[in-house]
């Protein structure tokens, strides 16, 4: 009998096998993990490999396409159902060794090694989901061997996949008999954590999905991921309907205080919004809601409690006790009134403290400061700023009450980011004349064609990133002083500076029916917000005994839109080399996605959250002192050497 030498790349494992050995079997014998859902029946296509052609001196053997048996019936059937394989690809379960060959196992066929790129391409997520699919052929019942259908399913799973001691959901028991008979004794089972059968489908089922949801107080954002490939197949966002109970978190808690039972309304509404989002995602991806079999959630403590149906009233005042900060694992979707697969499992990331929620835990999971050498500052600005500072030695977290000024609230002409909102501003230090850009247009306001472009929306107000820029530019042009006073003496030089009662305003834009100005109160509101943010950061720096940080990540929508230079000019963030200050995108959402796709990541963040040192700004005497010093622009005492030049 002839032998053939086979080398698998990238592992480099090699061995000799009799001609005719199925490739998948050779791989298993050499400990090369090749994925499979269907158990080698040519149904799932997960076991694809590439026959490397040409000379391979490194491996000392040559390889040809015909080193494997001709395309088998199974493969042809697979191609008929699912379309052509990529060039050079074969199903390893259906091809046998014919001669020496080098076989490449592509990343998507490697068990637990599939790497999913984050959208921002910052790092990779390893795919190792909590729920996996297994296809089995189950023995038919026999009068002489009386065993139940469930027992025989478990035996098949044990025999083919070595899944022992499985439990099953009651709904699986309710559905198993129909599934087995419809599927002609072939079924696909979804197994949660290698322990529990949570669903069975007749025949071969290759699609399951999970959704990762970031429940923000303003918007709820969700991604739908294919749990077999990790790929994001749809993304959607909706306003949080709780907004009508109050814009910010504390007003929602006050609503509950004034209206007993109001929390139940808010729970119902947020769950309904999540159901609507799930439907948006399923429609966009062209799948059934019942194909969504898992969901992970992140959110600040109040959103977290309301989602879980917990009254958030204790979070409305000191000592801000959480009902639970632990992760919530293995909940069934129906327990949260979610209309995805009824046995779908829900995982909610842990909260860090009464003010610092599962959204911050998700940011930590996404940015992993606990693995870095360099001292990393992570800031998520919303109504509260959540702040994380640390490296592999220690990680600290706190929340600072910035209020909603950075989001455009409390600013006379502030608005949410939308077409027509000013997002970029420059002020000429000689003439004090402004120019700006609005969302939806690439032109500056002083460029020809600007009026035509914005004709439809008009210039409607100023959004968060625009507010930061205008304040910084006003300061750089000398229109506001270090103490944040609009300098009225400049009124003699520019018509832009106008009296406004006993203070002064700067007119940014004027049309027949409205004037957009920055008032003294606006400047004050931003000063208070940025002082609170900086003081929180400074407090954590004190605790660590450091004067500067090495890397800053700005999370959330705000972080992705502001120009970091201006954030530093205003003294919102401490000094740091500008090239090390980056937007980290919606890191909370990414964290939810990591937890969805990788079960070890759940343990990792649960462990990290235990170790994070929680700082309560309200009880720290130095917070007030830092706050007062940070009212000045950029700061009363701290320097910003990296801004020079
Ligand atoms: Fe499923 Fe080969 S293992 S197609």
Explain what you see.
This protein has 645 residues and is of the alpha/beta class. The chain folds into 5 domains: 3-109, Ubiquitin-like (UB roll) (Roll), CATH 3.10.20.30; 131-202, Roll (Ubiquitin-like (UB roll)); 224-348, 2-Layer Sandwich (Nucleotidyltransferase, domain 5); 359-404 and 525-643, Nucleotidyltransferase, domain 5; 413-518, no CATH class. 28% of the residues lie in helices and 25% in strands. It has a 6-stranded mixed β-sheet with strand order 16-15-14-17-19-18, sandwiched between helices. A hairpin with a 3-residue loop joins strand 20 and strand 21 (385-390). Helix 14 packs across helix 15 (599-611). The longest helix is centred in the C-terminal third of the chain and has 25 residues, at 520-544. The protein is elongated. Mean pLDDT is 90; it is low at 117-123. The site of FE2/S2 (inorganic) cluster has 12 residues, from loops. FE2/S2 (inorganic) cluster binds next to loops.
Task: Summarize the model shown.
Helices cover 28% and strands 25% of the residues.
Number of domains: 5
What's the Cα radius of gyration? 30 Å
Shape field: elongated
What summary fits the major beta sheet?
6 strands, mixed
Contiguous runs where pLDDT drops below 50 for at least 5 residues: 117-123
Attribute tags:
elongated; Nucleotidyltransferase, domain 5; alpha/beta; 5 domains; six-stranded mixed sheet; Ubiquitin-like (UB roll); 645 residues; 31 strands; binds FE2/S2 (inorganic) cluster; 16 helices
Write the layout of secondary structure elements.
Blueprint: E1 3-9, E2 14-18, H1 23-29, E3 48-52, E4 54-56, E5 61-63, H2 73-82, E6 89-91, E7 101-104, E8 114-117, E9 124-127, E10 131-137, H3 149-161, E11 167-168, H4 170-182, E12 186-192, E13 196-202, E14 209-215, E15 219-226, E16 232-239, H5 249-258, H6 262-285, E17 292-299, H7 301-308, E18 328-332, E19 345-348, H8 358-367, E20 376-381, E21 385-390, E22 395-400, E23 421-427, E24 434-438, H9 450-453, E25 461-462, H10 464-476, E26 497-500, E27 503-510, E28 515-518, H11 520-544, E29 551-555, H12 556-561, H13 564-569, E30 581-583, H14 587-597, H15 599-611, E31 613-614, H16 621-630
Parallel strand pairs: 1-7, 11-13, 14-17, 17-19, 20-29, 22-31, 23-25, 29-30
Antiparallel strand pairs: 1-2, 3-6, 3-7, 4-5, 8-9, 10-12, 12-13, 14-15, 15-16, 18-19, 20-21, 21-22, 23-24, 26-27, 27-28
Bound molecules: FE2/S2 (inorganic) cluster.
Residues 36-38, 40, 42-47, 91, 93 line the site of FE2/S2 (inorganic) cluster (FES).
């Amino acid at each position: 009998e002839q032998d053939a030498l086979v080398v698998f790349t990238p592992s480099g494992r090699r061995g000799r096998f009799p001609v005719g050995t199925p490739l998948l079997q050779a791989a298993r014998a050499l400990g090369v993990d090749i994925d499979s859902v269907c158990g080698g029946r040519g149904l799932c296509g997960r076991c694809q490999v590439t026959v490397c052609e040409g000379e391979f001196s490194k491996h000392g053997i040559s390889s040809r396409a015909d080193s494997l048996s001709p395309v088998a019936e199974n493969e042809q059937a697979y191609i008929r159902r699912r379309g052509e394989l990529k060039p050079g690809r074969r199903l390893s379960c259906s091809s046998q060794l014919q001669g020496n060959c080098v076989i490449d196992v592509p990343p998507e066929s490697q068990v637990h090694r599939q790497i999913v790129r984050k959208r921002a391409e910052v790092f990779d997520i390893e795919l190792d989901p909590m729920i996996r699919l297994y296809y089995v052929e189950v023995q038919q019942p026999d009068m002489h061997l009386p065993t139940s259908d469930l027992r025989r399913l478990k035996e098949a799973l044990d025999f083919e996949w070595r899944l022992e001691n499985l439990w099953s959901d009651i709904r699986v028991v309710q559905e198993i008999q129909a599934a087995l008979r419809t599927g002609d004794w072939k079924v696909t089972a979804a197994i949660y954590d290698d322990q529990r059968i949570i669903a069975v489908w007749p025949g071969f089922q290759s699609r399951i999905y999970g959704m990762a949801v970031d429940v923000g107080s303003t918007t709820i954002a969700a991604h739908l991921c294919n749990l077999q490939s990790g790929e994001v197949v749809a993304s959607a966002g909706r306003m949080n309907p709780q907004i009508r109970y109050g814009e910010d978190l504390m007003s929602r808690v006050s609503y509950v205080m004034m209206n007993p039972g109001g929390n139940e309304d808010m729970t119902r509404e947020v769950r309904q919004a999540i159901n609507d989002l799930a439907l948006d995602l399923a429609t966009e991806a062209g799948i059934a809601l019942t194909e969504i079999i898992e969901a992970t959630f992140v959110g600040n403590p109040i959103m977290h409690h309301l989602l879980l149906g917990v009254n958030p009233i204790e979070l409305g005042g000191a000592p801000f006790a959480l009902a639970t900060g632990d992760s919530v694992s293995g909940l069934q979707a129906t327990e949260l009134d979610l209309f995805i697969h009824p046995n779908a499992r829900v995982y909610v990331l842990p909260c860090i403290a009464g003010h610092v929620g599962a959204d911050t835990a998700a940011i930590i999971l996404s940015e992993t400061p606990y693995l870095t050498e360099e001292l990393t500052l992570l800031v998520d600005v919303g109504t509260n700023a959540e702040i994380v500072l640390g490296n592999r030695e220690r990680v600290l977290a706190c929340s600072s009450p910035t209020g909603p000024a950075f989001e455009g609230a409390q600013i006379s002409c502030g608005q949410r980011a939308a077409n027509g909102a000013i997002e970029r501003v420059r002020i000429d230090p000689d003439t004090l004349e402004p120019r700006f850009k609005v969302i939806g247009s690439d032109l500056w306001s002083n460029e020809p064609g600007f009026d035509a472009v914005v004709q439809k929306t008009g210039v409607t107000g100023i959004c968060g990133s625009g507010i930061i820029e205008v304040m910084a530019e006003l300061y750089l042009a000398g229109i506001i002083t270090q103490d944040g006073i609009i300098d009225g003496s400049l009124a003699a030089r520019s018509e832009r500076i106008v009296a406004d009662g006993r203070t002064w305003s700067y007119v940014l834009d004027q049309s027949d029916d409205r004037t957009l100005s920055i008032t003294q109160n606006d400047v004050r509101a931003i000063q208070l917000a940025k002082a609170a943010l900086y003081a929180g950061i400074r407090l954590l720096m004190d605790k660590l005994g450091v004067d500067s940080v090495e890397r800053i990540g700005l999370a959330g929508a705000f972080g992705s839109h502001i120009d970091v230079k201006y954030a530093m000019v205003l003294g919102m963030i401490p000094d740091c080399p500008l090239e090390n200050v980056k937007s980290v995108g919606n890191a909370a959402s990414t964290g939810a996605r990591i937890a969805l796709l990788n079960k070890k990541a759940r343990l990792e963040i649960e462990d990290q959250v235990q170790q994070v040192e929680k700082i309560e700004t309200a009880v720290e005497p130095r917070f007030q002192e830092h706050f007062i010093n940070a009212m000045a622009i950029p700061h009363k005492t701290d320097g910003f050497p990296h801004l020079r030049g």
